[in-house]
Amino acid sequence: MTIKEIASLTGKSSRSIQRWINEASDKMAGLSVKMSDSEKSKKPADFTFDETLSILRAGKVSKDLIDILIENMNGKGQSVNQSSLLSQKDIELISTIVSMTVSKIIQSLDTRMNNIESKYNEKQALLPAPGLSDRDNLRKIVSSYAEKKKISHSIAWNKLYQESYYRLNINLKERAKHRNITIIDYAESEGYIPKLLSIAMEIFI
Fold it and tell me: With CB atoms 3.0 to 4.6 Å apart as the test, which of 101, 151, 163, 164 could cross-link to 155 if both were Cys?
C-alpha cells in the first residue's frame, strides 16, 4: 500500500502517515530504505502487508481495523507474512466498514449524551426555587401592606422606620443621611435588615 492509500484507509493526512513511518522505521529498517528510494525515484513508496501493519501499529490505529486487514488477507488464502498488497476494492470495502463502525459509535455517543442531558434537565426541574433575601422579603412585605391599605409606599416605609426608632433606639434616617446613602442600604450595611424584617412581619402582616 502507498502512503496515499493508507491515508485514505485511516482517514488521516499523508503527513500523519509519514510520521507513523518514521516511528515504525525504528523496528523495521526497510521502511527507511523504501522512503529514501521513493524520494530519489519520485515514485510513491509501495509497502508490503507486514510493513503496512507496522505503520498502522505505530499510528496506534484501532485493533479492530488491523484485525479486519488480517482477516481479509487470510480470507484470500494468503499468508500474512507474504509481501502482497490490498487491492483498491479491498481498501474501499475496509473503508466502508470503518466508516460504518465510526458512525455507530457516534450514534451511541449521541444517545448517551442525550440521556445525560435529559436526566440533568429532570434534576434541574426538581430543584427548589431560589428563596428571597431578607431585604427583598422586607420590600415585598412593605409593598403588600401599602397596596392593601391603599397608601403610598413612602408612608409604609416611614411607619416601619418610626417603629424601628422606638424598638431599636436608632434613627436610621439620620444615620443614612450622614452617610449619603439610602436608608435601606444603610440598614443592610449595618446588619439591621433581619430586625426590620421581624418588625415588619409583626406590624404589617
Answer: 151
15-24: list long-range contacts, CB under 8 Å, 24+ apart.
Answer: 16/59, 17/55, 17/59, 19/59, 20/55, 20/56, 20/58, 20/59, 21/55, 21/58, 23/58, 23/59, 24/51, 24/54, 24/55, 24/57, 24/58
Query: How far apart (Å, rounded) are the C-alpha atoms in residues 158 and 142?
Result: 10
The kind and range of the H/E element at 117 are helix 88-126
d(CA 56, CA 20): 7
Task: Name residue, grid cell 482477516.
Answer: 71
Take residue 68 and report the three cell numbers written for it: 479486519
What mean pLDDT is reported for the chain? 83
Cα–Cα distance measured from residue 197 to residue 202, given in angstroms and rounded to the nearest whole number: 9
Q: Determine if residue 180 is left, alpha or beta; phi over 0 gives left, psi from -120 to 50 gives alpha, anything else beta.
A: left
pLDDT in tens, 141-192: 999 999 999 999 999 999 999 999 999 999 999 999 999 999 999 999 999 9
